[in-house]
Amino acid sequence: MTQWAEWTKIGPLLVDTFQELRQTFARHDRRQLIENRSRDLRSLYRSYITRHRELEPFAPAWHEVARTEPFRTIIYTTPPETKISIIDLRQHMEEFPRIVEEWKERANSFLLDLLSQDVNDHANGRRRKGKGKERTPDLSVLERATTIFACKWCSDCLLYPHVLSHRCLNMRRTKIDEQEVEEIEPNALWNEGHDQVSFDTVASEAAITVIRALGEDPSTVTWKQLDQSPKRVECVSCAKERGSCRRLVMTWRQAVSVSLLDLKE
Fold first, then answer.
1. Which residues are within 8 A (CB) of 228 and not within 5 positions of it... i.e. 6 or more apart?
2. What dihedral do alpha carbons 134, 140, 144, 149 form, nearest 10°?
3. In terms of C-beta density within 10 A (0-12 exposed, 13-18 middle, 19 or more buried), how is residue 182 classed?
4. Which of 76, 89, 136, 165 is 20 to 30 A from 219 (CA-CA)?
5. Which of 199, 215, 231 is a domain's end point?
6. Phi-psi label, residue 217: left if phi above 0, alpha if psi -120 to 50, beta otherwise
7. CB neighbour burial string for 48-69, b if at least 16 within 10 angstroms, e if fewer
8. Are 85 and 132 found together in one domain?
9. How far apart are CA 151 and CA 170, in angstroms?
């Protein structure tokens, strides 16, 4: 009777502990299975991108491809006892161009949606009054030096297409131990949740000021053109009459960064 009484006290706790351990091991096995299969895809996809460097700035990360058909079905739903080899994945390599193009279109569409309907006027430093007809910005807007995005996780100012490959936006943030076994997902999506990147109005305003100081048109000039330009700007408030560093001369990117630091102080 004494032993039974003791068991009734500790029995439920032990059962719960063993069940939790079983779930923990199951989560680990499921994650390991997906990661091992995705690793073969990573090798195959990186090889493809290496041979098509022009696609690299606009291509999804390999872990996003793993969650895209037809690879998702192969990696996620094939029974664990069935071995998946790189040969099985190689049979679907012809899908890479389609996957890259469709992903790029979705990402571009999301970024364009972030821009206000008045983005063209905003680039000129103007704001329309009243309700005008909504205008969808064209893709060329993404290349402008005034189109700057902000990351939810860090202070980087993101231009296009770097925003597509920014590390913070391609990280998996959900803890595995918070997921059910069948929901285990080690592969991240770009901007998962659609709330990790936003249009940086403050940085855009700072860029407009700098671009005008350079004598360029904020409504048309691209970041590539400014990067290639020999023009520089000088910070008049930092000028000194004496000393070895009397003038602070900056590239347009440096000037925008300094302007943002001043605004935060």
1. none
2. 60
3. exposed
4. 165
5. 199
6. beta
7. beeeeeeeeebbbbbbbbbbbe
8. yes
9. 11
Placement of tokens 């309907």 in the chain = 117
199, 216, 246 - which closes a domain? 199
Give the model confidence (pLDDT) of 169-200 as tens digits.
999 887 766 667 677 889 999 999 999 999 99
End-to-end Cα distance, the chain: 73
3-state secondary structure (DSSP) of residue 235: coil
- Tally helices (H) and strands (E) across the chain: 10, 5
pLDDT tens, residue by residue, 32-45: 999 999 999 999 99
196 touches 245 (CB < 8 A): no
Tokens found for residue 64: 């996003």
Q: Which amino acid is at 154?
A: C
Are residues 85 and 8 part of one domain? yes
Q: Are 67 and 189 in contact (CB under 8 A)?
A: yes
Q: What is the DSSP string of 143-157?
A: GBTT--EEESSS--E
| Contacts of 93 by beta carbon, 8 Å cutoff, 6+ apart | 44, 48
Structural domain that includes position 214: 202-265
Q: Dig out the tokens for 45 from the structure.
A: 């996809």
> Contact, 119 vs 141, CB < 8 A?
yes
Global pTM reads 0.81
Which of 111, 90, 88, 108 lies closest to 100, judged by CA? 108
